[in-house]
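Marked as duplicate of an earlier ticket. Keeping the data here for the record.
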Amino acid sequence: MNPTMQLHEQIQQCLVRQEFETAEQWASSYVKQAPASSAAWLLLGQALLGRGYGAMAQLAFQRAWLLDPEATWVRAVFAALKQSQAGPIREEIVELLKVKKVTVTAAVIAKNEERCIERCLNSLIGAFDEIVVMDSGSTDKTMEIVRRFPEVKLYETEWKDSFSQLRNETIPLLTSDWVLWIDADEVLYPDDAKHVREAAGLFDAFEQPVILQVWMANQYGRHFHQDFSQSRMFPLNRGLRYYGRVHNQIAPDGGLQERVNTVSRKVRIRLIHDGYDPSVWRGRQKGDRSFKLLQQMVDEEPLNPSGWFFYGRDCFNVGEYDRALAYLKEAERLALMTPAFSALGTVRMYMAQIHLQQQEWVEAMRLCEEVLQRSPDYPDARYYLAQAQMGQAREHLRQAQQAIVSYNEALPGYRGAIAPDAEIKAWKAGRHMAELAVRSSKLAEARDLYEHFIEQFPQVEPLQAGRQALNGKIEKLLAAPTVRQKPASE
């Protein structure tokens, strides 16, 4: 066990024994060694909470959540904080929480965004050291609205069928240490404004350049889809740039194969995005533009799996499954020859979903199992594997039912040299039909079958056992509590 893991285990053992003072001392040491470790801050928060320093614990937990936005402990921990005493301010904890001071630019690219640009900019004021908008040829009131904001620097350029070109043209104009790219149809969540510089400061000293993935809340009407895969924030002095005409990827100057020399981390900086809402999407014709750019990408770089993957994914999202599968297969083929391509598992998950749609259970299972070989703890692969196995089980059940029907149809006219089994004819086929009815949840039909054949063959133990098991299942179902429907007047 490495020293960090050993320290982690020691702190956990102290917490279990309620030795909170010792746990705090060791957790403080852990935080000093690894200030960007969510686990270190979580342990420190637990120790502080145990000692009655609720306010200090809350700050530690907030830092832990910033560094692990998908954390499952958040609800329980903050419920416990409500029951705790605030306690005094601890200067040594305040000192631990300090981060390197760095500056951050909010960079926005825009074209005909009069619907949303004002609310976007309003959400950025005060959270950044610089706000830059690069307009690529708006013909509506976008630039007029931007000019109302004295804090915002507005630049103009021509649209050249490439979002990467647009972003890379903007990068030299930025004057801060870090940049966070924000689309005009996004809004920075107010509570996370204070986290922008904090996140940059925590990761600024890493040996390898860090690319931060933010928390996207994509709005669809009243519902939100959470996405933690959007790489949006990075240091400006480490040679990073964008690649790809659409669905851009960030990598060093050497190209996407150099992405292995960077570090990717997720942070709790939430952006609310409504551009995928059907009412907005239909009016923007974004899909047609994306497909045009994707076609250009694969034409220009036919050996790059990224373009084929994005093309397949976008086809999948609009329900063009045959087309999607063809592009994803090409992405998979090329990915196997491109070690730097890190999304092979994602490619296979999309392919598995298409095979599930087409009820091709074996192929879906193969893809899920290949993903699990590389990532054994990936939950989505287990979910889709279960779906494929259930689909195959239903298919096998249907085939079994058809086989027993064929048996019954063939039996009366059979006159072959091989004599049929008398017991199958007498009662085994009937028991098999009853078992299939049970597996199909046709319990009344199964009961009638058992009763029919037991009446003829009362001494056959397998029939009696089958009926007994069925009756036990029915009794459990009848005994299960039912949910009372609440009257409308209550």
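See parent ticket for discussion. The longest strand covers residues 223-235.
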